[in-house]
Protein: histidine kinase
Organism: Mucilaginibacter aquariorum
Amino acid sequence: MKKRLRFTFIIATITVSSIVLFQLYWLYYTFNNAQRGFHITAVRALEKSIDLYQSQQVELPTSLNYKKPSLTVFMRAKPSVEAFDLDTPKHKEVFKAEFNTVAIDKQHEPYVRALIARLMTQQMHKPLDLNTLAGIYEKELAKDGIVMPVILTLRKQPLSILPNEVASRIDYYKSPVVVIAKLSSSGWMIRHNLLPAIVSFILILLSAGSLWYMGVIIRRQLKLDRLKNDFISNITHELRTPLTILRSSNEAIARFGVAGNPEKLARYTGINADIIDKLEGEVERIMDISMIDRKFSIKEMKQVDLNQLLENLIRRFDLISNKPILLTIPNRPIQVNTDPYKIETILNNLLDNAKKYAGDEARISVEAVISHSGWQLLVSDNGHGISTDNLLYIFDKYYRVENGDLHDVKGYGLGLSHVKGLVESLNGKIIAKSKIGHGTTFTITFPV
Ligand code: ADP
């Protein structure tokens, strides 16, 4: 059982860790991809903005605005003369020039415009207006869903570009410059990656949570296993002693002629009857305890005088105890709606424990406290107490606090779990507070 559970847990841990690692890697990969996508989009938009800006700065040939855009280029002059020289006075003679008109299709038109604008602006000595360019850039970015204010700066050949910077080169004034935009990608990244990131995060939480929960269940199962073994060894111990006595007295009757001696026979059969009674009592107790779960659901609620109920119970207890129990009750009759049988069983168990574990010298007290929201019963003793580690588990089935000798006080570790079940079946709550060497207090709270 232990091995199988441990093996299952190891397999589950490996599986869940792989899922979590994969999710983390996937998140990292998606994030990096998105960041790269953002950068590429921003650079393209900046290049396009520069083209647009430059085409606004120069007057482009009107033939580019025709329905069928074209460019007419000077091919050659006959006799061959440098085109520039044609304008000078020494070439006044007649010459023939050859031009060629090139149609520009739709696909190439933006590039041709951009190229001509770029070449023309290169020759002009007009300063670059960064504010106008930034305005164009903002609009271009917005088309790609990146909405943010942009501040542009110029750098002569940057040595390095930072990760949050977007750069594009302009061949201006013969010496190239680089336009730099500082952009924060976080807003865009959040908008584009929020949903997958949340889903992935929830998956990681669910996987890790289920592994943790499985660990808790397995640990609880292993503990229950150990406690059950203790329980069985306790029962065996409780039953073996009377059986040994029965066997001895039986042997005495059979072997040592006790049968012929009516006086001895009566003594031995008397002992046997006692033992059988005890055994029967023990079996009934175990039966009773094992039926607990079924009994929780049955309730017989009635109006009861709380003071009277407690007084009767304590009086009965005092009859079998040499130390009186201190009872503190309100000084007026209190009617509560409850199941008196269950209340008695609860208190019987707690008082039994107080007597069993707190020692003969201990002072035991029961107190009833009434408030507008409900009523409380407090059972306290000033015995040796329960350590904080054990206090967490005392309401668990079969749990017994281990002392040096496991069987120094008889019990099956079922009393407090029974009490808790009963309290909860009456919609109440029970808590235990204890300090080693100072004693223990059980507080039960019932709503009105
Ligand atoms: P059992 O008495 O049969 O062992 P319980 O469920 O009644 O089982 O109690 C669980 C454990 O809690 C006990 O083994 C005991 O160690 C501890 N315990 C309960 N009541 C007290 C008390 N009043 N003082 C000290 N220890 C207590």
Summary: The first helix runs from residue 2 to 57. The two ends are 46 Å apart (CA to CA). The mean pLDDT is 85. Residues 302-447 form a domain with the Heat Shock Protein 90 fold (CATH 3.30.565.10).
